[in-house]
Amino acid sequence: MGLTEILTMSHELALIAALIILLISEIFSDEKSKYKFIPLAFALILGAGVVGLIFGKTGIIFGGMYQNDALRMAMKLILDLATLIVFLQSTEWIKHPHNKNRVLEFYLLVFATLIGMNFMISSGDFLMFYLGLELATIPIAALAAFDRLKNNSAEAGIKLILSSALSTGLLLYGLSMIYGTTGSIYFSEIKELITLNSLSMLGMIFFITGMAFKISLAPFHFWTADVYQGSPIAVTSYLSVVSKGAAIFIFTFVLYNVFGATSAIWTQILVMLSVITMTIGNLFALRQQNLKRFLAYSSIAQAGFIMLGILGQSAIGMGSVIYFLLIYIFSNLGAFGVVAIISAQTGKETIADYRGLYATNPKLSLALMLALFSLAGIPPVAGFFGKLFLFNAAASQGYYWLLFVAVVNATISLYYYLLPVKAMFIEKTDSPIATFKAKPYMALSVAICMVGLVVTGFASVIFEYLVSVSSGL
Amino acid sequence: MQSELLVLFFVLGLILSGGAIVFSYFIMPHSFNATKVEAYECGIPSKNNSWSQFNVGYYLFALIYLVFDVEIVFIFPWGEVLKEVGKPALVEILIFFFVLALGLAYAWKKKALKWE
Amino acid sequence: MLYTISIKYFLILSTLMFFSGVAGFIIRKNLITILMSVELMLNAVNINFLVFNRYLYPDQLQGHFFSLFIVAIAAAEASVAIALIINIYRRFNTIMVNKVDEMKY
User: Fold this and answer.
1) What Rg do the C-alpha atoms of chain B give, in angstroms?
2) pTM of the model
């Protein structure tokens, strides 16, 4: 293996280098000077993205364990961008005196998970997939428990690690059965060898169950709301956007490319999961008062809609899923950004606290409104096009009654997405949140999300590019 | 496809996991007294709760030991193929040790190795 | 010698182990015991991988290596989980799951 081959994974190498740089600066810096490394972390994530963009090339190395192509490179860049936004949003929280001894640990752990996700996305066999998945999961549990002095945060951490351990167990049990039937752990070989027999079907069902835990599809979603509410906001947005996006990507890829021959079975499972997930996510989101919990259930419902795109089963399906993920990243991070700004300023997190916000903080209200409209899929905003392409993908395979359920659910979701909007614009209160100016980093993150929403919504070239690179799979 | 086997497996799984719950509910004695919650049910009466405070240093040492100990699992296979692979294997294990050493340095910096 | 034991006994053992782990995960109240249940599940998976490799595909090593990596990752997972359990004990003064439930919907 030559040096040029190793450069195929230049994106991962750049991230690893960034991690080592941060770790060394943590070891050789004194207690007082931690804050000056925050811009360094921003620069490193940007640099890793640029290195991946310039030096990244397609190829298969390590005997098929690692593969890279245009679609994967696009996905990695999307994840980098989302992580940068999360970093920007976390500045206020990380500067809190409670966190003064572990500023760099936050960035270290996030970089570690990002490396895991990149390897997971690029995996060409189940061993690399498993290693990436675990590297992406275990540090997040530590991140969820980052607010060590809060009971909720400790609870979120333990719930996340135990439920992810259970899901990993289920997933591995499925993988062991697939290994038993096909005698291989390589995606390309399993694709050729897999047949419809009871052992391999059972393995596939266990695999889908494990992944359903990770992307919190109902009925495997019980951990989600508690973890999202208890974790610090930066971690919640990271968890609900970046790690979910990576898991959905590889889930789609494995279903298409490894279990392609058995699609008759997994489409039925996905149809059921999709219906249950959309309905349960919506019904529970209706009654939430805490905005973090609210966004948690809404993200469960969104995962149900994404299943529709996966059912599209072709380049269109893959393209629409990635496109929706891109829009979902901008809209969800935009919403979380506003919640983070207000929470950092006032400590308030419930919908009732947002009454009359438009009168005092019009810019924040407009940003939150735009993000929520996009999540709901109201026409002029990007989220509408995302949902439209997902529905289109499902329709191309003839799932009309499923489409009907999805449209009904999307209509229900309109109601609860409008609740915070109504609170901000219409309802009056005697003591609204006072006018304040958001910190520059956090305002920048929300601005990036808003620009992203507009650009992804109106530039159809992005969707066409994603479909065109998906067709090579 | 032998779908009946599939059904059978699921039923068996349900019976095994559900049966364990139901069965243990029936055979477990429903009495409760102070002796039962003691650390040793027989022998010398225990003095206080077994959840007494230990020095947290024990846990730290155990955790660090655990992580470094398990790495040997990768070093044995490496030793097996060292002669065949040659130089690249040496470079790879050096990278591996470098990362481990960074972890140790971090633990040192955080005063996890200090006994207080 | 080894082949005198049929493969199906190994698979029965691993299935029993796996579902004991699942049952333990659900019914146990102590966080440490729940963690032990998870380890039981992972070890059942290890047995599966090793047995499939040894009996069905004896000329390759993929299953062996997969189980080696599972062992190492399980250790990492356990160490993070134990650290979080210590954290829970400091916050709640208990490690019983039914006491650790501040968030409800």
Assistant:
1) 26
2) 0.88
